[in-house]
Design a protein that fits this description.
Layout lengths: L1 E9 L3 E8 L4 E8 L6 H19 L3 E10 L2 E3 L4 E4 L11 H9 L3 E5 H12 L8 E6 L3 E7 L2 E2 L31 H4 L1 H11 L17 H9 L3 H25 L3 E5 L6 H15 L2 H6 L1 E4 L6 H12 L4
Helix pairs in contact: 1-2, 3-10, 5-7, 6-7, 7-8
């Protein structure tokens, strides 16, 4: 029987689970809303239900070798423990691997979701042909994964790759991490909305501020495509601050490619010109000219594919 991994990507909003072959083919998938719970066991139960549905589908046709989990948290991958999950705080300190494997009786591995996305893009996406890459995810926050010589850079405490918390404005907006001026506060979906509100008085003719109290990043993007000056300035600033962060990464890590994904990357055409301008201005010339900056290709499957690849790397191929 063909070997498969059951991989899932747990987000603050959705849980996506799939069965993935060694070639990266997804042969089963399911999706649930992530419970708004204060109990880790309730989230674990949803995962178990989805896994059970997948196991039933695969029964007698495929050999399930492992369950691979991507979670939005800093993790101790070696011991299978969630250290800190800002968007799902009930998982803080949770012995995730032990709890899941005890119920399902299948080996489980755990990885940070941004690291998993980086691996997914490295395996089958925009970073496929490169051994050194950085993946930046622009969503509700800003996540990141760093691959050096084909391996995820985790750091001694497992917190390497926290690109969203590179400081780009020392006295800037307060960040949820406790610092000020993190790039997450200038390049995420939440940041796009905040910036539009703060800059509104400078653009009184923008239709975005005419009697509107609750606008979305998507609305701001649509306005930008129509040439709205407020929206264009918001995306210029997004690119400006993200460019500063990437220039620092280029100088320190000298990557071959930087891949940018996530929902807030929808404004690509509007923010990339200012991003590239800052990279060219602030990074060393040769690395800045060498590095390729691509849009992510794997979409919502990046994390699922990444943790599946990690599992297959651990002796399943």
């Amino acid at each position: 029987m063909s070997k498969v991994v059951i991989a899932f990507d747990l987000g603050g909003t959705n849980l996506r689970l799939a069965a993935v072959t060694a070639e990266g083919e997804i042969i089963f998938r399911t999706k649930r809303d992530t419970p708004k719970s204060t109990k880790a066991d309730e989230i674990l139960q949803i995962i178990i239900e989805c896994a059970g549905e997948c196991i039933d589908f695969l029964k007698n046709r495929f050999e399930i070798k492992m369950i691979a989990a991507a979670v939005p948290a800093t993790v101790n991958a070696k011991d299978g423990i969630v250290l800190k999950a800002p968007n799902i705080p009930c998982l803080d300190g949770f012995r995730f691997v032990e709890a899941l494997s005890d119920v399902l009786k299948i080996r489980v591995i755990l990885e940070n979701d941004a690291n998993a996305a980086a691996l997914g893009e490295y395996w089958l996406g925009a970073a496929k042909d490169f051994e050194s890459s950085i993946c930046v995810t622009l969503g509700t926050g800003v996540g990141g994964g760093i691959i050096i010589d084909g391996k995820i850079l985790r750091g001694v405490d497992g917190t390497a790759g926290e690109i969203g918390h590179i400081c780009v404005e020392p006295f800037g907006a307060l960040c949820g991490c406790g610092s000020n001026g993190c790039v997450e506060q200038y390049a995420s979906a939440k940041a796009i909305v905040r910036l539009a509100g703060e800059l509104g008085r400078e653009f009184p003719k923008s239709y975005l501020i005419r009697g509107k109290f609750d606008i979305s990043a998507q609305e701001i993007y649509e306005a930008g495509k129509q040439g709205d000056k407020l929206a264009l300035e918001v995306f210029r600033q997004q690119g400006f601050y993200l460019g500063i962060a990437l220039a620092n990464l280029i100088n320190v890590l000298n990557p071959e490619v930087i891949v940018i994904g996530g929902g807030a990357a929808a404004g690509w055409d509007l923010f990339v010109p200012s991003l590239r301008a800052e990279v060219n201005k602030r990074a060393y010339r040769e690395p800045a000219e060498r590095v390729k900056i691509f849009r992510a290709e794997c979409g919502d499957d990046a994390g699922i594919l990444g943790v599946a690849r990690l599992a297959f790397r651990q002796g399943l191929e």
